[in-house]
Amino acid sequence: MIRLYSLSLLFAAFAGVALAADAPPAPAPAAPWAVRLENVPGHDSPHALGGFPDGSALVVYRGLAADGARDLHFSLWHDGRWSEPKVLIADGWKPAAGPAASPALAVRGNRVAVAWFSVVDDNPRIQVSLSSDAGRAWQIPLRVSEDTPDAIVAVALLPDESEVVCWKEGARLMLRRLSPQDNAGPLTPLAEVAGPLDSLRLMTLPTPDENAPVRLWLDYGAGGHDSASVVTLPSLKQLAVQDNTCACDTHITLVRGFALSGTVVSRDQAAGTVTVAHGEVPGVMPAMSMPFKAAPDIWPTLAPGRQFLGRMEEREGAWWLFDVRLLGAPGK
Fold first, then answer.
1. Among 92, 142, 101, which Cα is nearest to 122's?
2. Which of 185, 214, 243 is the last residue of a domain?
3. Residue 100: exposure state from Cβ atoms within 10 A (0-12, 13-18, ≥19)
4. Count of the separate structural domains present in the chain
5. Do 273 and 308 belong to one domain?
6. CB atoms within 10 A of CB 169
7. What is the pLDDT of residues 131-164, one digit of tens each?
8. Which of 243, 269, 301 is the last residue of a domain?
């Protein structure tokens, strides 16, 4: 169905994924939450940093306990300070020599995935965990590797809430996607790699719509040589069909904006706005009252006093409400 485009690093064709040379993505702008490195928790340990729309940040790192265990910790940068570090996963791994491998982070809005290498009961593995609230809470880790992986790992988030993880096993780079329902897809070999990896990075390229192929930028270093390619997956619509294991109607989830819960304070019909008192939207904005634009079909339903769940997104400098679900009766 999908073919593997030829490069010197490729070794075979396989269904569902393609790899091709392409131009590098534009460099990311400087993070507004940047702080002095020595102030970051775990800065002297293998770590990964990620930033969120409101200027907050997250660091995930391998702490070092007195007994030599390198459990995974995280801390949040918010209101000008780092939070007290917490344990993300306590797997008790004690590397025999040298520092543990760094975890990998991917951020999309206030959604974040972390992938890491560990050894549990003498069994090497790659695991991944997801947070939907900018790192406040984490899902139970899922194992994605099946054989004996190397320690370096990369992760990316797709627009349908799925994660894609890449790592090396033996002489091959491997890729696996986890569906929005946390079902692991097939292991896909990407390329032959001689010698150990020096670096590995995976990031999502823009996807115009649900019918366009999903593309990921992949680059890695091995043996003093750097390689870069584009991994091409099926479209989001095709992926949704593949994920459908219940014989029910296929639903494509394109994650737009951010979830919020709120109460309507007032309406301004002339401006077409609704003032809403809402709770914190982690990684996006604090709890506050603010005006939102609303489409004509939902504006009349948002009477003062109504509580609702919905989503918000920024469009051309204004915040809009959509996908609104009313709660209770007016004034209740």
1. 92
2. 243
3. buried
4. 2
5. yes
6. 17
7. 989 998 899 899 999 888 999 999 999 988 899 9
8. 243
Q: Is residue 88 part of a domain?
A: yes
Containing domain of residue 29, as a range?
A: 18-243
In a domain? residue 4? no
pLDDT tens column, 238-258: 888 887 665 544 444 455 778
pLDDT of residue 9: 31
The token duo for 161 is 């809430």
pLDDT at 35: 59
Question: Does residue 67 surpass a pLDDT of 70?
Answer: yes
pLDDT of residue 10: 30
Is the predicted pLDDT of residue 22 greater than 80, yes or no?
A: no
Distance in angstroms (rounded) separating the CA atoms of residues 331 and 263: 10
Judgement on whether residues 154 and 113 belong to the same structural domain of the protein: yes
Indicate if 50 and 129 belong to the same structural domain.
yes
**For residues 324 and 314, what is the distance between their CA atoms, to the nearest angstrom?**
16
Task: Tell me how far CA of residue 169 lies from CA of 41, 44, 219, in angstroms.
Answer: 31, 28, 16
Residue labelled with tokens 């190397």? 150
| Amino acid at position 185, single letter | G
Strands 197-204 and 72-78: unpaired
CA atoms within 13 A on the CB side of 264: 30
Q: Are residues 235 and 277 located together in one domain of the fold? A: no
Domain at 123, CATH number: 2.115.10
Q: Does residue 130 belong to any structural domain of this protein? A: yes
Distance from CA of residue 299 to its chain's centroid?
A: 32
Confirm if 272 and 266 have CB atoms less than 8 A apart.
no
Q: What is the CATH number of the domain that holds 291?
A: 2.40.50.320
Quickly count: other Cβ atoms within 10 Å of residue 140's Cβ. Answer: 9
Buried b (16+ CB within 10 A) or exposed e, 208-238: eebeebbbbbbbbbbeeeebbbbbbbbbbeb
Tokens of 69: 């265990």
Same-domain status, 195 and 84 = yes
Question: Do 270 and 199 belong to one domain?
Answer: no
The pair of three-digit structure tokens given for residue 223, joined into one six-digit string = 């043996």
CB count within 10 Å of CB 147 equals 11
Query: Tell me, what's the pLDDT at 250?
Result: 43
3-class secondary-structure state, position 299:
helix
